[in-house]
Write a structure and sequence with these properties.
single chain, alpha/beta, six-stranded mixed sheet, 45% helix, globular
């Protein structure tokens, strides 16, 4: 599916200040609850339900609004097909249930992980798998306490808030970095127990860099089998990042001049190939656009002082607005 603006490009995946918990509610009216789905029998082709499925069409629009991420779009529709067929099986008197939906999202910052988690939450709520469909985003500081017993209580409290929705843990591997005496291990143990105690009542998504997530899972033998859905979020290509940039600008009523696009392309190539830190993909693009908007404001104010430069010039981002 050829996409349009990425919600990844909207900056929703920006890191929150430590200890701030972000709760996002889906306000759609719940659909009738269907039976919990049975195990998938395989097949990777995206389902093609009939035009009766308003939810399918709604999901298609949201996913088509994402640049790239074809493998993630396919996965979402596989889950949709599984839930639809489970409902049909239930209506036919066949067994349903037993499918686990805990997930691991692997990828660099700015690749759309949080955005896709929100879409999945909506899907599960509308299909009756989750009663609320809200998303709670946390990180290590939200889970780990300062003394014995504090971590378990904090973690249980967050799981309780997530019941009926999704608990999304960013940089989940940081829970295992402190060694045997670190309270992060207590958080992991509490999460594992909660997955058993509240089976089918919430979905847990672990997110972070691919290599570190893999190491984290391997270091905890009981974890991999609990997360049957593991998804790679690839870095965007340069062309995809430029597409995101143009659409970000359009959302703000700006346009990029061709030479400005070329300048931004040079910045992106340099950042991706020469930077010593992980490239932040759509987040880097968003920061670049916001920086250019500030530079344009200074340029216009210096040039036109108290008179308006006109609508077209107010909308235009030029080469000089994209500084190194």
């Amino acid at each position: 599916m050829n996409g349009h603006v990425a919600a990844a490009s909207s900056g929703r995946e920006e890191r929150r200040p430590s200890r701030q918990i972000n709760i996002v509610l889906n306000n759609q009216a719940p659909a009738p609850v269907s039976g919990l789905p049975a195990d998938s029998a395989g097949g990777t082709a995206a389902p093609k339900p009939g035009s009766h499925s308003g939810l399918f069409q709604e999901l298609s629009r949201e996913l088509d609004a994402l640049v790239g991420l074809d493998n993630i779009k396919e996965l979402v529709f596989e889950i949709y097909a599984l839930l639809q067929v489970a409902q049909m099986r239930s209506e036919a008197g066949l067994a349903t249930g037993g499918q686990a939906y805990h997930m691991v999202f692997k990828g660099n910052p700015g690749t759309g992980k949080t955005t896709v988690a929100r879409i999945v939450a909506k899907l599960f709520q509308r299909m009756g798998v989750l009663s609320k469909g809200h998303l709670i985003e946390v990180e290590r500081a939200d889970l780990v306490g300062e003394y014995i017993g504090h971590t378990a209580q904090k973690t249980r409290d967050l799981v309780k808030k997530a019941l009926g929705g999704i608990l999304f843990i960013d940089e989940a591997y940081s829970l295992a970095r402190g060694g045997d005496k670190d309270f992060g291990k207590e958080a992991i143990d509490t999460l594992v127990k909660s997955m058993e105690d509240h089976r089918s009542q919430f979905v847990l998504i672990l997110a972070g860099y691919s290599g570190e997530i893999d190491y984290f899972l391997m270091s905890n033998p009981g974890l991999p089998s609990r997360f049957p859905i593991q998804v790679e979020f690839p870095d965007y290509t340069i062309d995809q990042l430029l597409q995101i940039a143009e659409l970000m600008a359009k959302d703000r009523d700006y346009i990029l001049m061709p030479q400005a696009i070329l300048r931004l392309k040079q910045h992106l190539l340099m950042e991706k190939t020469e930077s010593l830190h992980a490239f932040s993909n759509a987040r880097y693009v968003r920061n670049s656009i916001e920086k250019a908007v500030r530079a344009q404001a200074v340029r216009l104010l210096n040039r036109y002082e108290s008179t308006s430069p006109g609508k077209q010039e107010l909308m235009t981002l030029r080469t000089e607005d994209f500084k190194g």
